[in-house]
């Protein structure tokens, strides 16, 4: 959920335009980001402004939930992927602990596994 003034750490990647939509990626025999992210069903493509560590503002494509659903649970594989990426890019353990806490609050069934990440 978006909160004015909140911060979310992430990583910016350059992705060839041809890998974004299903049609163009299919011609390359690749899965598209739209397909991977579920664009059109649960998620939608959206352009957002992000601030780089040097203060520069850039526009980036992201996928956001179209209709948030009650009782939709985060799975362990997804949390593991996020935590691994945060660590790989040197994000603070404090921020990672906050991400883990959100995942645990969303899905207490995976709490022990998330704490072990």
Describe what you observe in this structure.
- The longest helix is centred in the last third of the chain and has 14 residues, at 93-106.
- The model has no long low-confidence stretch (mean pLDDT 90).
- The protein has two domains: 1-68, no CATH class; 73-117, no CATH class.
- The protein is of the alpha+beta class and 117 residues long.
- It contains five helices and two strands.
- A two-stranded antiparallel ribbon has the order 1-2.
List keywords for this structure.
117 residues, alpha+beta, two-stranded antiparallel sheet, 2 strands, 37% helix
Helix content class? 25-40%
Counting DSSP E segments of at least 2 residues, the number of strands comes to 2
Q: What Rg do the Cα atoms give?
A: 16 Å
What overall form do the CA principal axes indicate?
globular
Count of DSSP H/I helices = 5
Q: Topology as H/E string?
A: HHEEHHH
| Cα distance spanning the termini | 23 Å
Give the uncertain stretches in residue-range form: none
> How many domains, as an integer?
2
Largest sheet: 2 strands, antiparallel
Q: Mean pLDDT across all residues, rounded?
A: 90
Major sheet strand order: 1-2
Q: Specify the structural class.
A: alpha+beta
Q: Please report which band the strand proportion falls in: under 5%, 5-15%, 15-25%, 25-35%, 35-45% or over 45%.
A: 15-25%
